[in-house]
Amino acid sequence: MTTAALGLGTYRLKPAVLIDAAARAAADPATAWIDTAPNYLGGRAQELLASFLVRHPVPTSTKVGFLTDQAAKEAVFDGAITGSEAARRHCLSAPYVHWQCAHNRTELGRDRLDLVFAHNPERAAGDPYEALHDAFIALEAEAAAGTLSAYGVATWEGFETGALSVPALHELAASAAGSEQHHLKAIQLPVSLVTATAFTQALDGGGPIAQASELGWQVFASAPLFGGELPLLATRELSELLHPELNTAQACLLATASCPGVTRTLLSTTCPAHWAEAREALRFPAIPVPTLRKVLDVLAAA
To answer: pLDDT by residue (tens digit) across 159-180?
Structure first.
């Protein structure tokens, strides 16, 4: 078993400390990654990151889907979305995806995007697969034009509720690309000792994490500490069972990074000490599956 790499999630970060956090994430070039979106930090995240990314070309994932009020106005003006789509503040139509990818490139200061996630397709009006089919066609066209390397699907509850499945996404991408050689290469979903359905399934070789891993996709674990609440919920006895040499937050983070199939764990923190502790924790060997299963069973029974 291998331990997932660490990446910086920017959803909860404050603008004033974003660049410092990005610099810490870039400190280890072998594993550095930044995950952002055009609607993060009130729509400012990407523009704030741009000056740093010009000097430090850290691999970065961004998203299409949610629109800020300002972005919605601009997209309507440019003819990329309709008024009703703007009112929803969420869209995955092909014209919008092309429009947002162009804006992402401009805001991040890049000619080619590393990875673009279709953001929470379960929020789409109507059938999420119909919305994703349009989005995938546009993303495949972007890949063919050389303006993005790969795309994925980022969801909060899509796999949990059964609204989405990896085999269906794979089939949808193949249809959009016209062959099995599509550019859908990643999923992002919450994975923690609290949001544990996909985690538990992965330990048994099933569910979206295992299915994505079998296809060779990257699996990004978001909210590994459940928005910072997990270290307050877990007992010291539980963290010692996971790893006696680590504090509670470190043990919980290592647990997520040890989930079979997870390739990157996204941590949102502006605290230098917390980032250093996270890096230290992920240098330890992965926690064995029997231990992870035991801890999850204890939590499920609580």
So the answer is: 999 999 999 999 999 999 999 9
Instruction: Using DSSP bridges, classify how beta strands 184-190 and 148-154 pair: parallel, antiparallel or unpaired.
Output: parallel
With a CB cutoff of 8 Å and minimum separation 6, the contacts of 186 are 61, 115, 117, 150, 151, 152, 153, 212, 217, 218, 219, 220
CA distances to 225, 226, 299 from 195, in Å = 10, 8, 11
Q: Provide the pLDDT for residue 238.
A: 86
Site of tokens 């741009």:
50
Which pLDDT band holds residue 236 (cuts at 50, 70, 90)? confident
Three-state DSSP at 188 gives strand
CB 207 within 8 A of CB 198: yes
pLDDT at 1 (0 to 100)? 64
Query: Cβ(201)–Cβ(207) under 8 Å?
Result: yes
Report CA 221 to chain centroid distance, whole Å. 6
User: For the segment 89-127, what is each residue's pLDDT rounded down to a tens digit?
Assistant: 999 999 999 999 999 999 999 999 999 999 999 999 889
pLDDT higher than 70, residue 184: yes
Task: Specify the amino acid at residue 25.
Answer: A
Q: Report which residue type is found at 188.
A: Q
The Cα 222–Cα 4 span in angstroms is 12
Condensed to tens digits (0 to 9), the pLDDT of residues 44-61 reads 999 999 999 999 999 999
HSE (CB half, 13 Å, CA atoms) of 4? 29
Q: How many Å is the Cα radius of gyration of the chain? A: 19
For residues 153 and 187, what is the distance between their CA atoms, to the nearest angstrom? 5
Instruction: Report yes or no: 153 and 188 within 8 Å, Cβ to Cβ.
Output: yes
The single-letter code of the amino acid at 199 is F
Length of the chain, in residues:
302
- The DSSP call for residue 112 is S
C-alpha span between 34 and 9 (Å, rounded): 6
3-state DSSP call for residue 238? helix
